[in-house]
# Entry
Amino acid sequence: MKKVVHFGAGNIGRGFIGALFSQSGYHVTFVDIADEIISRLNEEKAYKVKTAEDQPTFTEIKNVSGLNNMKQEEEVVQAIQEATYITTAIGPNILPHIAPLIAKGLQARLNTSNAKVYVIACENQISATDILKGHILKALDNDTMKKMEGTVSFFNSAVDRIVPIQDNKNSLDVLVEPYFEWVVETTDDIPVVEGMTKVADLAPFIERKLFTVNTGHAVTAYFGYLDGKETIDQTLNDPAVYEKVKATIEETGAYLIKRYELDEAEHQKYIKKILGRFQNQHLNDDVTRVGRSPIRKLGAEDRLVKPLVEAKKLGLSYQNLASAIAACLLFDIQEDPESVKLQEMIQEHGVPYVLKEISHLAETDEAVKTIVDKYESFKAEYRK
# Structure
């Protein structure tokens, strides 16, 4: 049986990428530090994926096991030596931490075999696999890097499936939305994985997804938080918030249409489909889950700031994106370390400093003035 080593045994790993590999006839070894999940995978060797819809489907996911990378490093190295694919769904910030272990596994593999292996980081991050590759190469010597040529392939990808936080502490089963998309950038003849789409140029797909789905999801969360809403579907079923979110991703859409020469009518259909997905009440997705990690989401290359910068360069409107960034700056959740840190930075240094440090926006940038004005307006309106 073909094998895959997948880093990340959380709901997304089990409910999306890991599930697709299992359905394609692979044995999936999940690697994570969550002892309880790893133990259950090894005991039960299966779980179910349920779709969030009126008439849900249940898919049994078999041929799975787990390893704890903190306690079973040698076993992980051995698993990498036998794998056809090495994938991740663990969060972009964790990639530097798992890279040395992947490097160790690849080095051991290359010393004994020249069988091809494919590495794909399935993260909400542009060029995530390139980032992972960079960290892996730092841990390898020149001889090993030479051996990798023609044997180890790294492919960037774009992933899209909403998997909400869920109370499954006593179960491996996962609730997911019916829709998913997994696009991988390669023209190589690689082993088939059900649900994977290959493309020669990923950029239009990943930016369309990141600046529509991820931007829209985050904006819904931040305006929902300001408005006292609890869930994403509840937020987006408020007509006033719906129009704010729609206007924001229409601004990102204007950039995408101009940058990649997308068909405007088709992109409008895509926007409508995405907003409909967010309104799925079966997901019951919490506003605070979707809004967490605001510092990462305010990054210069991420879902809020990059489309604003690109729209501004092209002379397009960015007023709604500025409002979304202002709403993000007011996201104040004590359970989220990034949210706490962001609020501390704002209190100590002010919004222009934060936008310079996190978003790489010059304090003299006209967009910063716009964001600050909207921030002060929202602060007065929502923090009475």
Observations:
- The chain has a mean pLDDT of 96.
- Residues 3-200 form a domain with the Rossmann fold fold (CATH 3.40.50.720).
- The two ends are 61 Å apart (CA to CA).
